[in-house]
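Input sequence (188 aa), recorded before submission:
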Amino acid sequence: MGAIPFQKDQNKKLMEVLEMVKGHMWSAKLAIKTITFLTCLGIVSGITGKTFGQTDWKQRPRDPNLRGRIESPLSGAQVKRHFSVQGTVTAGRSRNLWLIERIGQQHWPKEPKLIVREGRWEGEVFEGGRPPAGRFEILLVDVPDNLSKKFEEWLQTGHSTGHYPGIPARDLRDMTELHSKEYYLKTE
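Predicted structure, token format:
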């Protein structure tokens, strides 16, 4: 069965489907349940514009009210290669919160994905490279499920190969930057 697009005249198409169902002696209640089920699968694509099997049809949209901050360490601080980062999230609902290191246009997710408890979160950063002049940024970001999954896969690949290539900014279009702070690596 192909997709039944409802883009132009949704009510007319819905009525046609109901008439087809009535012609098969189905009850109206069963017809509504069937249409609801097909809509949930994405086969009836009027609401989502997508069909079953397309991955982004179920992505939760970004909450424009979401606010987050990195509270500690302070911006400009000198930090060791491994350090803790704490912050807050207020208003709105997050999808998946991550800390990401940024140097220029390259990005490195830091594990694990953040968990918010009573409006607070804490994460870890390990800087394993040599940032120019020791300077790098840490971002607090909100990402959709598909991008969060890509971060997890990228980390898993890095763990198995020992290679963590930077992710270019163009591959992070769905990422929402909530806050950032600049840090300097302590020379040891």
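Checked by second reader. Residues 1-11, 34-58 have pLDDT under 50 and may be disordered.
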